[in-house]
Amino acid sequence: MAQVKPQIVFDPWNDPKAKPLIQCRSITKRFGDFTAIDTIDLNIYEKEFFALLGPSGCGKTTLMRMLAGFETPTEGKITIDGQDVAQVPPNKRAVNMMFQSYALFPHLSVWENIAFGLKREHAPKERIEERVAEMLRLTRLEKFARRKPHQISGGQRQRVALARSLAKAPKLLLLDEPLGALDKKLRQDTQFELMDIQERTGTTFVIVTHDQEEAMTVASRVAVMNAGEIMQIATPADIYEQPNSVYVADFIGDVNIIEGNASPVSGGPEGAISIAYGEGQDPVQAIATSPVTEGAKVFYAIRPEKITVSHQPDPDRANHAFGKIIDIAYLGNISTYRVQLANGQLISATMTNARRLERRAFTWEDEVWLSWTRTAGVVLTK
Amino acid sequence: MNKRLSWFNVTSLSLGFAFLYLPMLILIFYSFNASKLVTVWAGFSTKWYVALMHDQPFLDAAWVTLKIAVSSSTLATVLGTMAAITLVRMGRFPGRTLFSGMIYAPLVMPDVITGLSLLLLFIAIGLDRGIFTIMLAHTTFSMCYVSVVVSSRLLTFDRSLEEASMDLGASAFTTFRLVTLPIILPAVVSGWLLAFTLSLDDLVIASFTTGPSSTTLPIKIFSAVRLGVSPEINALSTLMITVVAVGVVSASLISKRAIIKQRREEQEGERV
Amino acid sequence: MNLRRLLLISVPYLWLTALFLVPFLIVVKISLSTTAIAIPPYTPTLDLAQGWAGFKDFLSQLSFDNFTFLTQDDLYWKAYLSSLQIAALSTLFTLIVAYPIAYGMARAPDEWRPTLLMLIILPFWTSFLIRVYAWMGILSDEGLLNQFLLWLGVISSPLHIMNTSKAVYIGIVYTYLPFMILPIYAALDKMDDSLNEAAVDLGASRLSAFWLVTLPMSRPGVIAGCFLVFIPALGEYVIPQLLGGSKTLMIGKVLWDEFFSNRDWPVASAVAVVLLVILIVPIVLFQRNQQKQQEAES
Which of the 8 DSSP states describes residue B44? Predict the structure, then answer.
């Protein structure tokens, strides 16, 4: 992942003494009969870049709007910096938001848009000038200060929205799908710019997105949401390598799910189990992080890039399966092979295309061996 | 659709616009007729315009009409905008259905009924009829038109602009003043213009609600034309049509240029 | 915040209550009163000073006599019927004139459309009274239309149009034409061009494509336009007064005369109440149509 390597490990969530900037305690939000947010607990620490990730309608935007003050929780308590914010209206919160539509005031210039918040707190004129100039520099918009929003490009509008929401130096900045309106190339550049700005200003960022790649790239921690609940909160690496449920494993990246019955293996490493998943198939050798009972139904999740494809089984690896290539997706740098096992199970495996295409070792209908190690996948119970 | 018009379309458009504009063009043409007999052409003359300029009762009526139109449309714009915000933004409140009914009913109410009912009210409360009562009557029906125009703009208004303003620390009132009002201003202005025209144009309601001493221009014109066509009225009509035509054409030219300018700037904005 | 909200709601609310609802209730009340030679020229008058007894006394004196009177004198029901007929027929004529114009506009090149639209809206901003007046010089016996037709030799003696219901039809079609064109144009303009192309592609002739695709697609606009013409035409006063002469009966004119000439306020009020009751049907239908359209669009 594209994490900037910090000098000191930044993980306040592992420090029991650290006080979170934002605390959500059993937050529930109902709109009539519909429960948008269902008893969520969440801590966000200072200087974090926190991502709320989920499909549309999962409640992530509602959660963000409650932090901004546009919605009030039906139940539960939100504190920001130790203060209960239930009674604090949005215009009195030290929280600013960057809107999905940017919500730039069309009748005001870029400069006036950025100065809007500062003028509301009646800052002295020189202070406003200075701060707006600083924001324009930060977002490289100096040349466009006098322009109206419709006179600049989409990417520039996005930066104006960011500058405007940062101008008041909020404790917390909320970003609602900040890159949603940009095309792919611009989006990637802007992701790094966002991370850079977050680091330079030291502001706590909470980003709402449905794009898992974006969340993984920018965030220090990711909360995966589904149907009003938080499924898992963890660092991007942990979300990817140690998903806690089939939902999370499936939502982030590509994954093979093998469903089977577990039985503990004696004499192996700690937590070793084998999973029987089909007539005539060698059981999968895996490590369970929590104890499983004999015969329990489990899901074995393994990423395609953890599996190698070869003509002979790899003797160094604990797991082998034999099957036939039924599909090859060539993506330039990598190829994904879809292999059908004897019991009908489909497994995807990704190989790097180190060689030129014409010398590729495998083709359609080839019978191949799939191999992977004992620790390559995770055992999930839900 | 087809970029080239068929003969059928060309014919129907030409006939349609001829039907719409010929009567007015004939009116304008005959206002320059030297003869008093409207249907006989007796040479070019501007004497009816001169006569009109010296017709003191007409000038007085025009002045009264203008005073009523300016004051009622301004008041109607304020009230109508308030009503629009109430309808679109205030959610549920007791009596909301009655309120929206009272906004929409005057739009379809025949003028004779509106006029009659207001006159009966003014008599019941013993209010002397004159400029003031006409102004009240005009404000009442035109505020409903204003509120329809403004509320249709408010319905398409991007609420996140207001949320952004609140988020940046503005109070509800400041948000209205600095964000909402400037953006809906074009709709408010068209509401004012509509109210102004409706007031200028109204004959029936003004006839009911006026007193013996105050005569508006439409009342004056009406009592003159009941007796038949008169060249002086033709001259007056020509002046009124000209003012409106110049106003509407220049307004549409201005807005067309503004749209072209904005499009060009947007294209340039994408390029930089 | 809450005080501001209260102020915002209550100012227009009170204004409309005082100057729309209350006057209307007064009309209803007077329609139930009896004509009297007095100031005001009707009884009973509500005397609030007498409290509940006064109110009960007031209620007992109200009567439906005026409404019974409307059914007995055939002037009134003839006027209602003739208003309905004139409004309905002129709505139909307006539709026939307006549809080809709206269709032509919708087929016109994109760069013409704003200008065409402006030309349709422009008459709406000019004085209604003047637009009706313009026809007086054209339609009279020695008017321009007759002069023109005589010159062409189409007719040998002048047509009597002025001061007949024909002139009223022409007046209504002329003044309300924009109200019909605009909604039809809006409906046709929204229509996807490829629908017609698809119909032709599937073997329909251009005429049957129009009949089977374009016309049904423009139906909401046609319905809206018809109501926008019919509703105000029903209560019209100026057009029958200036163009219709004394023989053309329309209810707006009857109400006016009843009030100003006969000074019979209770009957005038009863006429107004019945007119409103008649209007409720098309208004409710119109509302339904608009709602259905909005739902279809959203």
Answer: B
Q: Nearest CA to C275 among A269, B116, B46?
A: B116
CA A275 and chain centroid, separation = 30
Q: B36 by DSSP, 3-state: which?
A: coil
Q: Which two tokens stand for residue C237?
A: 């006063």
Assess whether pLDDT exceeds 80 at residue A279.
no
Beta-strand ranges (E) seen in A210-296 are: 221-226, 229-234, 256-264, 272-276, 284-287
Phi-psi region of A211 (alpha: psi -120 to 50; beta: other; left: phi over 0): beta
Query: Which residues in chain A touch residue B160, judged by CB atoms under 8 angstroms apart?
Result: 99-101, 103
Asked if B116 and C101 come within 8 Å (Cβ–Cβ), the reply is no
Burial letters for A349-381: b for 16+ Cβ neighbours within 10 Å, e otherwise? bbbeeeeeeeeeebeeebebbbbbbbebbbbbe
Mean pLDDT of A50-55: 92
- Mutate: best of A88, A105, A128, A142, partner B, most B CBs <10 A: A105
- Return the residue in B1, B114, B150, B209 with the most chain C beta carbons within 10 A, the one to mutate for interface testing: B1
Q: What are the chain A neighbours of B188 within 8 Å (beta carbons)?
A: none
- H helices present in A167-312, as ranges: 184-201, 212-218, 236-241, 246-251
Cα dist from B148 to A72, B104, B192, whole Å: 32, 8, 12
Interface of A with B in 65-84 (CB under 8 A): 68-70
In angstroms, what separates the C-alpha of C109 from chain B's closest C-alpha? 5
Q: Residue B124 — φ and ψ, nearest 5°?
A: -60, -40
Domains delineated in chain C: 69-297 (1.10.3720.10)
Q: Which of A192, A217, A250 is the last residue of a domain?
A: A250
Residue B2 sits at φ, ψ, to 5 deg, of -55, 135
Sequence-separated (6 or more) residues with CB below 8 Å from residue C66:
C31, C32, C33, C266, C267, C269, C270
Which residues in chain B have Cβ-Cβ distances shorter than 8 Å to A107?
182-183
User: Residue B119: how many CA atoms within 13 Å on its side-chain side?
Assistant: 22
Q: Compute the count of residue pairs across chains B and C with CB atoms less than 8 Å apart.
A: 231
**Domains of chain B and CATH, by start:** 25-54+217-242 (no CATH), 60-211 (1.10.3720.10)
For C38-140, list the strands marked E by DSSP.
42-43
The sign of the torsion formed by the CA atoms of B119, B124, B127, B132 equals negative
Buried b (16+ CB within 10 A) or exposed e, A166-176: bbbebbbbbbb
Q: Does A122 touch chain B (CB under 8 A)?
A: no
β partners of residue A145: none
Phi/psi for A202 (5° steps) reads 65, 20
Window from A2-11, A243-252, B177-186, C141-150 with minimum mean pLDDT: A2-11
**ipTM higher than the 0.85 cut:** yes
B183 in contact with chain A, both atoms CB, cutoff 8 A: yes
User: Which of residues A217, A250, A283 is at a domain's end?
Assistant: A250
From first to last of its 298 residues, chain C has per-residue pLDDT tens of 578 888 889 999 999 999 999 999 999 988 888 766 666 667 666 655 666 666 666 666 777 778 888 888 888 888 999 999 999 999 999 999 999 999 999 988 888 888 899 999 998 888 899 999 999 988 988 888 888 888 888 888 888 888 888 999 999 999 999 999 999 999 998 887 788 778 887 878 878 888 888 888 899 899 999 999 999 999 999 999 999 888 888 999 999 988 888 888 888 899 999 999 999 888 888 888 888 887 877 6
Alpha carbon distance A202, A192 (integer Å)? 15
Give residue A83's domain range.
Answer: 12-94+170-250
Checking if the pLDDT of A113 tops 50, the result is: yes
Secondary structure of chain C: what % helix, strand, coil (to 5)?
80, 0, 20
Strand A319-330 vs strand A334-341: parallel, antiparallel, or unpaired?
antiparallel
